[in-house]
Every structure is written in structure tokens, then in C-alpha cells.
């Protein structure tokens, strides 16, 4: 019999990419989303798949979740729904705190319906302002202060507690910047690509020397699927991200080259807040799980993203 996987936030970038891959691997996938930031475009390719079931609903509400557990009795649950986005979460801290209600609802249902393993999309944000680089899962102190980061931190504690109290298995993923074709256009890579494809100036805040790490979506999805059965990810926390540091200026130049674009780079005043934080995961555990020495390189990942995005953008812009 097919294993059934419940994914909350399934219309989102990372969750929909996971759903598509799971269906390809022969799982049955059940998804819920409240359309906060997700898009039905992300599930266009799977919406009519016979093993895909979608319900519109709030993943923080027990009453919306219960029928999904009752009807489908999932074997695995990926809790990815969250109020996301730097500006949105800073402007709407009460929305962010709502997500705490979801932890209790989903974990109690997982316990009652005897789910084999649960997964939680935490974030590099739990490390807060960096006290050391690279950031190591079980030794780097968590320095979260902003509501989004604190809620992710609280979520981690919930998953660990339901394991300790009820034996519910978990794996916590601390996602670092992830990118790929289905990402919304306000993220730096999709934004620069859109500008490059349309020949508009590429807008870099400050001198562009601020650094980032970028993880291609396929590496994220491959690791999170392996987490179902991998012994190293049994009741563990794992950083999911690339350790290769790139400056924003290098990123802009690379995108111009890949898109073969005439766009020029223009510099805007540095952002007042939120653009200074440096993050870099120690990703040895992720690489060991993948059985590889390297992740998809930024250049390869950007080429794959560009190949899809250029056609999508033409459709969206028209
Ligand atoms: N993409 C990244 O680089 C990154 C980094 C760190 C953490 N994360 C985490 O990974 C998860 C997925 O992120 P993403 O980048 O794909 O974002 P996304 O916005 O594309 O996906 C989140 C989805 O959750 C849905 N949602 C939000 N609140 C909901 C609710 N109460 N009920 C039902 N659905 C709800 C949204 O509509 C959206 O479809 C999130 O938990 C996010 O915090 C992502």
C-alpha cells in the first residue's frame, strides 16, 4: 500500500516542490493551504494527479486539520505552513504568533493518528544575529529575538516535547536561503532574474558586498525525503543549506551572464535593517545524508532556475 504524506502549506514554494517529488516517487500526498502566500500555479502540474488531494484550510485550526487525518490517516506529516516574509512578519507579529496554535493542533493529531514521523520547517533565523560561523546544529547558541524566529524556536521545542512525552518521532529542518523556479518574485534571486530577463536595471542595496548562501531546491527536497527513513535524521535537528558564501554583487553578475542580459547593475541606499545578517550553515550532516561531497553549485542551480523562469515570466508579464 502507498504511504500517505500530509503537507501543510502545500501551495508554497518549498512544500509544493516536495509534493511534486513525492508523487513522482509513488507516495499519496494530501495538502492543506490557506492561500496566505501560496499560489495554485505551484500545484498546476499535480492538481489532477489521482494520488493528490488538496483542501483549502487553516493549518493552525484543529477543526480544519482533523478531517484530513480522519480521511487519509497520513503516515508522515510535513508541517511547512507558516506566516513568512521579513516585512510581513515584522508588520504582523500577531499573525506570526498564531502559528504557535498550529503546533499543538498538528502534534496532537499526529500522536492520536499514530503518524510514523513528523517534520518541521524551522529556519536559520533561529540562530538570530550570528555568534559564530558556520552555525552548527547542536552547539551554536540560538539567539532568536524577532517574532518569526522565536516562533520557529518554540516550534522546535514543541516537536521535541511531543517526542519526549509521547514518543512521536520528528526531524527538524533548519532551512537556510533556498531558491528555485517556483519561488515568489520578491526573493533576491527571482527578483534579479526577472530584472535580467526583462532587461531592467538590477537593483543592489548598498555596495553589494553583503554575503549570502543559497541552496537549490532539489537538494532541499532530496534531503527532506531521505529524512523519512535515514537513521542520522531520527529525532534530530539538521541544517539544510549551502555553506558556500557569495556576495550579492557576485550573484547579480552571475545572473546577468546566465541570462545573457544587457541589464546594468544600479546601487540603491543600503537597507536600514535586515540586510546585515550573515548566516552560514555547517552542512556536514546534510551532505552525509545525501551521500555527496557537494550540493548543486550556484551556477548550475541558477541555470536550472532560469530555464524555467524565463518562460513563466513571459506568461505572467503578458
Ligand atoms: N524558502 C526558504 O528559504 C526558507 C527558509 C527558512 C525557512 N523556511 C520555512 O519553510 C516553509 C516553507 O517556506 P516557503 O519559502 O516555501 O514559503 P511559502 O510562503 O512559499 O510557503 C508557505 C505556505 O504556507 C501557507 N500558509 C501559511 N500559513 C498557513 C496556515 N495557517 N494554514 C495553511 N496554510 C498556510 C502559505 O499560503 C504558503 O502556501 C515555511 O515554514 C518557512 O518558514 C523557508
Instruction: Find the CATH superfamily of the largest domain.
Output: NAD(P)-binding Rossmann-like Domain
Give the termini separation.
44 Å
Coarse morphology: globular
| Arithmetic mean of pLDDT | 94
Provide the CATH architecture of the largest domain: 3-Layer(aba) Sandwich
Our estimate of the beta-strand percent is 15-25%
Order of helices and strands: EHEEHEHHEHEEHEEEHEEHEHH
Low-confidence stretches: none
What is the C-level CATH assignment of the largest domain?
Alpha Beta
> What is CATH's topology name of the largest domain?
Rossmann fold
Determine the number of helices (DSSP H or I, runs of at least 4 residues): 10
Topology:
Elements: E1 4-8, H1 13-24, E2 28-33, E3 52-56, H2 62-72, E4 76-79, H3 86-91, H4 93-112, E5 117-123, H5 147-166, E6 170-175, E7 178-179, H6 188-198, E8 202-205, E9 211-213, E10 215-216, H7 217-226, E11 236-240, E12 245-247, H8 248-259, E13 265-268, H9 284-290, H10 298-317
Parallel strand pairs: 1-2, 1-4, 2-3, 4-5, 5-6, 6-11, 7-10, 8-13
Antiparallel strand pairs: 9-12
Helix pairs in contact: 1-7, 2-4, 4-5, 6-8, 6-10, 8-10
Looking at this protein, list some descriptive labels.
318 residues, alpha/beta, Rossmann fold, UDP-galactose 4-epimerase, domain 1, 2 domains, two-stranded parallel ribbon, 10 helices, binds nicotinamide-adenine-dinucleotide
Amino acid at each position: 500500500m502507498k504511504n500517505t504524506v500530509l503537507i501543510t502549506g502545500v501551495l508554497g514554494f518549498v512544500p509544493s516542490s516536495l509534493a511534486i517529488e513525492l508523487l513522482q516517487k509513488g507516495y499519496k500526498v494530501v495538502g492543506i493551504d490557506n492561500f496566505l502566500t501560496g499560489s495554485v500555479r505551484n500545484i498546476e502540474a499535480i492538481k489532477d494527479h489521482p494520488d493528490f488531494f488538496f483542501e483549502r484550510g487553516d493549518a493552525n485550526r484543529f477543526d480544519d486539520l482533523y478531517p484530513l487525518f480522519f480521511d487519509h490517516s497520513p503516515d508522515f506529516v510535513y508541517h511547512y505552513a507558516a506566516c513568512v516574509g521579513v516585512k510581513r512578519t515584522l508588520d504582523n507579529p500577531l499573525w506570526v504568533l498564531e502559528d504557535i496554535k498550529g503546533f499543538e493542533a498538528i502534534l496532537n493529531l499526529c500522536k492520536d493518528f499514530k503518524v510514523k514521523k513528523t517534520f518541521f520547517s524551522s529556519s536559520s533565523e533561529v540562530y538570530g544575529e550570528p555568534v559564530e560561523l558556520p552555525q552548527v546544529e547542536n552547539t551554536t547558541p540560538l539567539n532568536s529575538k524577532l517574532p518569526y524566529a522565536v516562533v520557529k524556536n518554540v516550534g522546535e521545542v514543541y516537536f521535541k516535547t511531543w517526542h519526549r512525552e509521547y514518543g512521536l518521532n520528528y526531524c527538524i529542518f533548519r532551512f537556510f536561503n533556498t531558491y528555485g523556479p517556483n519561488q515568489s518574485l520578491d526573493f533576491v534571486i527571482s527578483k534579479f532574474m526577472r530584472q535580467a530577463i526583462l532587461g531592467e536595471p538590477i537593483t543592489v542595496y548598498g555596495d553589494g558586498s553583503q554575503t549570502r548562501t543559497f541552496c537549490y531546491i532539489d537538494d532541499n527536497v532530496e534531503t527532506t525525503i531521505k529524512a523519512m527513513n535515514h537513521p542520522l535524521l531520527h529525532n534530530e535537528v539538521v541544517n539544510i543549506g549551502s555553506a558556500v558564501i557569495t556576495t550579492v554583487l557576485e550573484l547579480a553578475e552571475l545572473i546577468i551572464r546566465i541570462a545573457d542580459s544587457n541589464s546594468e547593475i544600479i546601487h540603491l541606499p543600503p537597507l536600514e535593517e535586515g540586510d546585515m545578517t550573515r548566516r552560514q550553515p555547517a552542512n556536514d550532516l546534510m551532505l552525509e545524508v545525501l551521500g555527496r561531497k557537494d550540493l548543486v553549485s550556484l551556477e548550475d542551480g541558477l541555470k536550472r532556475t532560469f530555464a524555467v523562469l524565463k518562460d513563466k515570466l513571459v506568461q505572467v508579464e503578458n
